[in-house]
């Protein structure tokens, strides 16, 4: 089942074309990693898909009202700013806002979901701490939890694992993968190609002003495409504990 579609999407910022003619269909159940070198346009692609920046072409999400969009897509931007001194528990609960009745009371069912996600994101010990005073990685986990609690059919996250320690990077990718396996569509931009290789069902490689590869991780992470897009040599092997991918050297 199609979760969202982009048709001939293009973004030009300050007279510079970032990418053009990107057409994609993302389906329910897919865990899609968006990869590409710095400045390739990963953030711009996600923001344009959400209708947050001017673009050419179409995105099936761009014309939703703000409320409908918040009920359809949980969006985790790269900038992680927690402006208010709310507790972690309250911050996560804010993810339910698009679903609340006008009285604003949190229903019991919602509280159970909030508790479950706090547990899943390993935030139990932090739940009564002021979110604005957590470390960068702890704040990232709280913001991911807020997005997960939104309980939407689509999840989009811009570099969600940046700044997390290895254990929390892995557990966060597993949470996203579980959400995809449960039938949601997940799109995450990633610089860690090892995590992308292990946890994504599909990779989209953005470079040279467009999508230059789209398919299963083993295909997109090929030596040729990695040399062409990132200028790196790589080591990639299927092991008993899953695919292992390691960038090796800068080439060319
Ligand atoms: N507000 C803006 N005005 C002008 N140019 C911009 C603006 N935002 C981004 N750009 C430019 O657009 C290009 C794509 O940026 P974008 O942040 O989408 O890339 P990215 O692939 O997400 O990069 P990174 O991996 O470094 O996060 C870059 O060259 C960037 O300098």
TrEMBL record:
GO molecular function: ATP binding; ATP hydrolysis activity
Keyword Cell membrane: no
Domain ABC transporter: 4-233
UniProt keywords, alphabetically: ATP-binding, Nucleotide-binding, Translocase, Transport
Pfam families noted in UniProt: ABC_tran
SMART domains: AAA
Task of the protein: Part of the ABC transporter complex HmuTUV involved in hemin import. Responsible for energy coupling to the transport system.
PANTHER family cross-referenced by the UniProt entry: HEMIN IMPORT ATP-BINDING PROTEIN HMUV (PTHR42794)
Record's protein name: ABC transporter
Lineage: Bacteria, Pseudomonadati, Pseudomonadota, Alphaproteobacteria, Rhodobacterales
């Amino acid at each position: 089942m199609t979760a969202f579609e982009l048709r001939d999407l293009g973004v030009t910022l300050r007279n510079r074309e970032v990418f053009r003619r990107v057409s994609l269909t993302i389906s329910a159940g897919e865990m899609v990693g968006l990869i590409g070198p710095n400045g390739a346009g990963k953030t711009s692609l996600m923001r344009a898909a959400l209708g947050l920046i001017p673009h050419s072409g179409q995105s099936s999400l761009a014309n939703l009202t703000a409320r409908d969009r918040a009920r359809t897509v949980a969006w985790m931007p790269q900038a992680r700013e927690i402006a208010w001194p709310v507790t972690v528990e309250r911050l996560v609960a804010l993810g339910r806002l698009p679903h609340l009745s006008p009285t604003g009371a949190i229903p019991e069912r919602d509280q159970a979901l909030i508790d479950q996600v706090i547990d899943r994101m390993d935030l139990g010990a932090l739940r009564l701490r002021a979110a604005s005073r957590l470390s960068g990685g702890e704040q990232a986990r709280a913001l991911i939890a807020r997005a997960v609690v939104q309980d939407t059919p689509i999840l989009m996250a811009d570099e969600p694992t940046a700044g997390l320690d290895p254990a929390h990077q892995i557990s966060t990718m597993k949470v996203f993968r579980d959400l995809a396996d449960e039938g949601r569509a997940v799109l995450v931009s990633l610089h860690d190609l090892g995590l992308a290789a292990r946890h994504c069902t599909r990779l989209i490689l953005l470079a040279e002003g467009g999508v230059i590869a789209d398919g299963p991780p083993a295909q997109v992470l090929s030596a040729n495409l990695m040399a062409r897009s990132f200028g790196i040599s790589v080591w990639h092997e299927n092991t008993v504990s899953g695919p292992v991918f390691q960038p090796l050297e800068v080439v060319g």
